[in-house]
Design a protein that fits this description.
InterPro entries: GH (IPR017853), Glyco_hydro_3_N (IPR001764), Glyco_hydro_3_N_sf (IPR036962), NagA_C (IPR049018), NagZ_Beta-hexosaminidase (IPR050226). Keywords: Glycosidase, Hydrolase. By secondary structure, the chain is α/β, with parallel strands linked by helices. It has two domains: 309 residues, TIM Barrel, CATH 3.20.20.300; 110 residues, no CATH class. It has 15 helices and 13 strands. The strands form three sheets. A six-stranded mixed sheet has the order 8-13-12-11-9-10, with no helix packed on it. The mean pLDDT is 92.
């Protein structure tokens, strides 16, 4: 495993890539809506991640599920959000609920709470994500929320240090500059008081000229001088996403990587790793060329590993469902399956309570994720007699003219004198394990 991968926290905006995780071995993964459009896809991606845990990997698994306008994890009831909670209360109740649901779904971390202060001219990116314009209310609500997360051993993340609330611009698109912000600013004192309760603080891609003439994420004066030395923070400093325009429009890849680590940052967040893999390639080249302090990086990796031990376990409460799906499968295969094509059904529900259409709506995409170049048919008449066909059967077995046919019986056990797989289920998690069987992985 690549230990220096621990210095990166990565996200996939589109296709989740298990092989990429195995190769890079990042500190953690942030799941975005595209990775979990619904609970079906979330369950499968969690199984992909935890199948790497079975091999000895350990990742933080996080999301931006703050509540309110940033809610990403399916199957969690919507919250009115931080501003409403700041006004009414119930931060502990929401924290208890959110932490419990995150834990059940396989998460061990969340990029929350936001402790930025709402100001009259705050950017929309702060908006109702802030608890209040009152510093004391923010500290109180955030601490209640943090304690609730920690009760379920979910790692909270304070963001965005030293405070994004006074920024009038959105750092996703430009570099905000905040002139009325000094070493005694009340917005920053919130972080001082809460920092001893957390192991993660996320930086702001904002410049504060009275503190330093460089963006906070890259500022040694701000991260090391204030957060580490003045506030006494000993946890991990994680950047906001490195591909945000506040950074890459103003600094080169080498400059942001070198400055961040030298400023005492620990973990680089890349939210869109598919399109910004060059950052990892740049880092690797800098390690090889000696442009980075290797001993400093090693110290950071050891600190990250120790904090992982606090929060990251090798399984999660609802993974037993995936294990049932895997262990229930029986099959008869005459030989390994190579270069298969697939014949998939047009699912119909048997009753108002039947879930077959929902179960199978993602089947085509799932097959494509596991067998990228495979042909997928919806009619037996399209099939070539040279194909090896994996035939998903709902109720009726049609005649398929192919070189080899393997039957997957989804709604009934229809054993015949044929090659078959019986998952005893039409759920996508069961089909996922069937596909692993054909790939030669996850053999029962």
């Amino acid at each position: 495993m690549n230990d220096f991968g621990n210095l990166f926290f990565i996200g996939f905006q589109n296709q989740f890539e298990k092989d990429f995780l195995e190769r890079i071995n990042p500190c953690g993964i942030i799941l975005y809506p595209e990775n979990m459009n619904d609970v079906y896809k979330l369950q499968i991606n969690m199984e992909r991640i935890y199948s790497l845990f079975d091999k000895g990997y350990r990742f933080f698994i996080s999301s931006d599920h703050e509540g309110g306008q940033l809610e990403t994890v399916p199957n969690i009831f919507p919250s009115p959000g931080n501003m409403a909670i700041g006004k009414v209360g119930s931060a502990s109740e929401f924290g208890n609920y959110l932490a419990h649901m995150l834990k059940l779904h396989g998460f061990n971390m969340v990029f929350a709470p936001v402790v930025d202060v709402k100001h009259e001219k705050s950017s929309h990116v702060t908006g109702f994500r802030a608890y209040s314009d009152d510093h004391e209310i923010i500290k109180m609500r955030a601490l209640e929320f943090i304690r609730s997360l920690l009760d379920e051993n979910i790692a909270p993340t304070l963001k965005h240090f030293p405070g994004h609330g006074k920024a009038k611009e959105d750092s996703h698109f430009t570099l905000p500059v905040v002139f009325d912000f000094d070493e005694n600013d009340e917005d920053m004192m919130i972080f001082k008081e809460l920092s001893k309760h957390v192991d993660f603080i996320m930086t702001a891609h904002v410049m504060y000229p009275k503190l330093d003439e460089v963006v906070a994420t890259l500022s040694k004066k701000i991260l090391k001088g204030i957060l580490r030395e003045k506030f006494g923070y000993k946890g991990l400093i994680i950047s906001d996403a490195f591909e945000m325009k506040a950074l890459y429009k103003n600094y080169s890849p080498k400059e942001v990587i070198k400055r961040f680590f030298e400023a005492d940052g620990d973990i680089i967040l890349i939210g869109d790793v598919e399109n910004h893999y060059y950052l990892i390639e740049t880092f690797n080249s800098m390690v090889k060329s000696g442009e980075l302090d290797i001993e400093l990086l090693k110290e950071k990796v050891e600190k990250i590993k120790k904090i992982k031990e606090k929060y990251v376990s090798d399984t999660y409460p609802t993974r037993f469902l995936s294990k049932i799906a895997k262990q229930a499968i029986d099959f008869k295969l005459d030989s390994p399956v190579e270069n298969p094509s697939f014949l998939i059904p047009q699912a119909k529900n048997l009753s108002l309570a039947d879930t077959s259409q929902k179960d199978l709506k993602y089947l085509r995409n799932l097959i494509k994720e596991e067998f990228k170049d495979a042909k997928i048919y919806t009619s037996s008449s399209e099939i070539s007699n040279e194909d090896t066909v994996i035939y998903f059967v709902l109720d009726k077995v049609e005649n398929v003219n192919a070189k080899r046919v393997i039957y997957i019986f989804l709604r009934d056990v229809l054993k015949k004198d044929v090659e078959y797989v019986n998952p005893y289920s039409s759920k996508l998690i069961s089909i996922y394990h069937v596909l692993q069987l054909f790939k030669g992985e996850g053999l029962l």
